[in-house]
Amino acid sequence: MTRRRPQARAVLLAFLATLCGLALVLFPLRLRGAEPSASTDGKAATKQAAAGRKGDKAPKHTEDAGADAATPSEDHAPAEHAPPAHADLTSIPLGKGLPVNVNVAVFFLELKSFDDTKGEFECTSDVRLRWTDPRLRPTTKSLRGYKEFRDKEVEEQLTKMWSPSIDVTNRLESAPYVGRRLRIFPDGQIESLTRVTGRYKARVSAETFPFDRQRLALELIVREDTTDEVLLRFDKDDVGFSRAATDLKLDGWTVGLVDLHAEEIPGWNGDRYSQTTASLIVDRVWVTSLAPIFIPLLASLIIPLLSIWMNKATEHGFEGDTLSLANMSIGGLFSVIALSFAIYSSYGVIANGDNTVTRLFGVNYAMLAITLAIVVVCFRYNLLARLFGPYVQREAFYFMSWALPVLSLATSIAFLLVAAA
Questions:
Q1: Count of alpha carbons within 13 Å of 78, Cβ hemisphere only?
Q2: Phi and psi torsions of 331, nearest 5°
Q3: Would the pLDDT of 129 be above 70?
Q4: What is the pTM of this model?
Q5: Domains of the chain, each with CATH number or no CATH
Q6: Do 157 and 138 contact (CB within 8 A), yes or no?
Q7: CA–CA gap between residue 395 and residue 135 (Å, rounded)
Q8: Higher pLDDT, 97 or 37
């Protein structure tokens, strides 16, 4: 019995040693502070398991190893709303790809003057630009739902971020901006609003004067970036914002809607630049031009006709004095010249080009030339009577006495209707 007890103890110890060995293999020792988590790097976990199987001692830098294990890998790092401290926010945003869409809208607050002769107008307008930069998403929430900068704060903020370089190509001069505002929304959308008073060049077309419609435009273009990088556009919200103030008025004109138009402008080496034009439509009040222009023009048509109406045809010729009738036509010519000088001095916009006024002056000169020819050919030399007889001359005179007035009046009315259409 005494010999069997040591043998039993040896078997029991061997069995316990085997269990301990299996426990070490199946359940390796875990180092203090280096317990693997869901975000532990795969390589670190493998090394620790191997160390446990071999029975190695814990490494000296256990705290550093725990810190490395708790840090998520770069491939699975969560997206941050705030940009890194070293990020260059002044570069063009690439978060949504290229080109960067910049929405443009213009509100016309005040129209101070419009000189259609020089083709210039002065106005105060609010230019709104909107684009998206995901790098500028605010990290903290505000009561308004967006972060806002005003006046001088806008200038400071713009030096720290990217903004589109937009210029007004038809601007002659401008005063310092009246006000400025910049808003940054939680989704990274940027809204810039600038109020400026300036003088601008306008393309004036007087072809349909006095029923003409003019466009007072602000031509905004991207100077530094091509259409591959920045593209100006507008949507329904921009169309709703682009309008004239309800109390905006201009003497002699009726203010209408604001029209937006986007296009591409060719540049150097085949580059193309994006441009958006915001045009305020104004219609001329034609009643103001009726008395000083069109009544004298229509009345001047009567002068050449008087040289026909003041004569009378008989079997032996005409009773009127040829010299007096010729002087009447020549006097009408000088009166039309004086009238044209007065009108073109007051309305320089119609002095050049094809328009209703120049056409009516053409009708006047044509009627003066026709009646002067009739006085010389028919009244002075009786050419029709010599060629065809007194009867034909008399009938031709009666025909001209009513046909010429009808022709001149119908032509004048047709020109006016074409302009008004």
A1: 5
A2: -65, -35
A3: yes
A4: 0.72
A5: 4-76 (no CATH), 100-284 (2.70.170.10), 288-420 (1.20.58)
A6: no
A7: 91
A8: 97
